[in-house]
Amino acid sequence: MTDLALKLRRSGIALEIVTLAWNVIGVVLLAILAYRSASVALLGFGLDSLIEIGASTVVIWELTGTSPARQRVALRLIGWAFILLAAYLLVQAVVALVLGHHATPLIGGVAWTAVTALVMFALAWGKRVVGRRLQNPVLITEGRVTLIDGILATSVLLGILLDYALGWWWADPVAGLVIVFYAAREAILIFRE
Fold first, then answer.
1. How many CB atoms lie within 10 A of CB 136?
2. Do the Cβ atoms of 188 and 86 come closer than 8 Å?
3. How far is the CA of 68 from the CAs of 88, 112, 127, 186, in angstroms?
4. Which of 17, 33, 67, 179 has its CA 20 to 30 A from that of 49?
């Protein structure tokens, strides 16, 4: 392995460690915020953070011993995690919409999702650059997962803000449905590859 490849692998692992640490903190914080606000979108985003933790762990495992077999296993694990997230959130969002469930918007949810969106977009860009230079499909795919995490943070933020500013209670479960769409789309892309 060349010095450049070794350096790129270390960069990829460092990006995953930052992602992992951010999401571990996020899971705890989002669990508290989702409970206090009864927000389907924050709950979904917390579950997505759990998936991101799993995906980052899988990528670190894959980068420490790259092989085609490891790459296939890593991609499938990430794909199945997205399927489980989509199924769970679909049920939660539909039930919330049917029952007219009203979440309580919290400033903490606004702040965390706004900062998370920025952090995830930056990490996704870094993973894409390093993944392409390494020609590593697992890091590139996980970079897409991180990009989706940033998009989801933005949609959850929008849902919370619409509920907070305009009283649109339905914006929270609709933001949850956005997560369902992206999770299903990403799982389909992973399994097609």
1. 23
2. no
3. 31, 37, 19, 20
4. 67
Q: Which domain holds residue 54?
A: 3-192
**pLDDT tens-digit map of 155-182:** 888 888 898 889 888 887 888 788 788 8
Q: How many domains does the chain have?
A: 1
Q: Residue for token digits 């890091």?
A: 139
pLDDT digits (tens, 9 = 90+) for 51-84: 888 888 888 887 887 677 877 887 788 788 788 8
Contact call for residues 86 and 44 (beta carbons, < 8 A): no
Using alpha carbons, list the distances in angstroms from residue 57 to 1, 77, 161: 23, 11, 32
pLDDT at 66: 65
Length of the chain in terms of residues written:
193
CATH code, 173: 1.20.1510
Q: Tell me the two tokens of residue 21.
A: 């640490």
Q: Which long-range contacts (CB under 8 A, 24 or more apart) does 125-130 make?
A: 126/11, 126/15, 127/12, 127/15, 127/16, 130/8, 130/11, 130/12, 130/15
Contacts of 70 (CB under 8 A, 6+ apart): 61, 62, 138
d(CA 162, CA 49): 23
- CB burial of 31-65 (b: ≥16 within 10 Å; e: otherwise) equals bebbeebebbbbbbbbbbbbbbbbbbebbbebbee
Does the model's pTM come out above 0.70?
A: yes
